[in-house]
Specification:
elongated; mainly alpha; 67% helix; 85 residues; 3 helices
């Protein structure tokens, strides 16, 4: 059973949906770190710790959005409902 899951994960390329999801998570982490560094007990620490994940998240969001709009439109001939389009 685990071999099948690993095989499917290895075959599936990165998708814009994954980039958007990862980007949103990293932006949220960056915002949380920013407020933690600026208002909490971590006041005075370099803010670069908040900016790095935030900007990486923004880059992933842009990549995902650009990929969605530039992806070729094609009809899927597969009938497997577990496989992403």
């Amino acid at each position: 059973m685990a071999e099948g899951v690993v095989a499917r994960a290895a075959e599936r390329p990165g998708s814009p949906r994954n980039d958007i999801r990862s980007g949103l998570i990293l932006v949220a982490v960056g915002v949380g770190l920013y407020f933690g560094f600026s208002t909490g007990e971590l006041r005075g620490f370099p803010m670069i710790g908040a900016y790095v994940p935030g900007f990486i998240g923004v880059a992933l969001l842009l990549n995902g959005i650009i990929s969605v709009f530039t992806a070729p439109k094609h009809e899927s001939s597969d009938t497997d409902p577990t496989r992403p389009n």
